[in-house]
């Protein structure tokens, strides 16, 4: 459901012709403009009612994505961990963190509307999908651009974190090299040695393969489309400019904004510069196949209902499964050994009930 004006028309009938002319890569005004577009897009999307959510054309994809995120969280989180959720959105992962019994949570997002929804979800004020007991961990919410601002300064009292998570959002940092570096520098500075950075983002290899296989500059199916601008008519991408490769992404009932290609080898190399060693980066299809071999995750899949369950005969459609293929999951480890007897931050700004005034805007 839309909260209001999003700045770009919704186009469910396929991609419109490209209207944008190429803007200089790294141009500050251009970059700010598209960053704002992304923020406005997400800010304008309100929480859905249970009925709205269940009637979504991508409901099974949403459930599958929740399963992938749950598996990542369960694999890399231990009881009592301090968690930094970059681009936390409306707090759709709060329940997952609660199930992992984390001890402390900080969520940061650029979209004011999403942070407000996250706040009400954390407080249990909103009529969300489950009427549930309060979350068991104290939390802090921050509204700001985590690919621009030095979060190590903002969160000096909260660090170090055991786990940093950035779900379906790291690609928004890839508009310029400076932003991509800031994203990774923030993660590295805030994670303890041995801590883990987990996430999901578009799989550049798949997107570029699909672009090259398509007749024009766009491709998609009944639930999504991707369109590149005319500057990419050659469909070739120079390895010397791996940032700012923009495309427009439309996913029914979810996304309609500019996104950026994150070449996986560049991601790995850049992360390494910030002492973040790649544990794995795996396409979502491979991730699903691998973890569906484990009974506990089969059971979780059944409970989440991504592939349908005994009562519900509907299941993930081939078009939704194709969208899943556009993404990968990753884990990186911060180099170094955990320090014995490491002192945690003061964390005295965290609350068990967050008021509007408690939200820090940076
Ligand atoms: C697809 S949503 C994912 C939300 C959440 N991580 C999840 O998995 O449910 C992408 C999120 O990235 C956020 N985002 C995009 N650019 C950002 C930035 N520069 N700083 C902080 N958040 C950003 C958006 O506001 C949005 O909430």
From TrEMBL:
Enzyme Commission number: 2.1.1.56
Catalysed reaction equations from the record: a 5'-end (5'-triphosphoguanosine)-ribonucleoside in mRNA + S-adenosyl-L-methionine = a 5'-end (N(7)-methyl 5'-triphosphoguanosine)-ribonucleoside in mRNA + S-adenosyl-L-homocysteine
Sites annotated mRNA cap binding: 90, 96, 121, 171, 259, 327
Top-level lineage group: Eukaryota
Keywords for the protein's UniProt record, in alphabetical order: Methyltransferase, mRNA capping, mRNA processing, Nucleus, RNA-binding, S-adenosyl-L-methionine, Transferase
UniProt-annotated stretches for the region Disordered: 1-29
Subcellular location: Nucleus
InterPro entries for this protein: mRNA_G-N7_MeTrfase_dom, mRNA_G-N7_MeTrfase_euk, RG7MT1, SAM-dependent_MTases_sf
UniProt-listed Gene3D superfamilies: Vaccinia Virus protein VP39
Molecular function per GO: mRNA 5'-cap (guanine-N7-)-methyltransferase activity; RNA binding
MRNA cap 0 methyltransferase domain sequence ranges: 56-335
Role according to the record: mRNA-capping methyltransferase that methylates the N7 position of the added guanosine to the 5'-cap structure of mRNAs. Binds RNA containing 5'-terminal GpppC.
Family from the record: Belongs to the class I-like SAM-binding methyltransferase superfamily. mRNA cap 0 methyltransferase family.
Protein name: mRNA cap guanine-N(7) methyltransferase
Organism: Linum trigynum
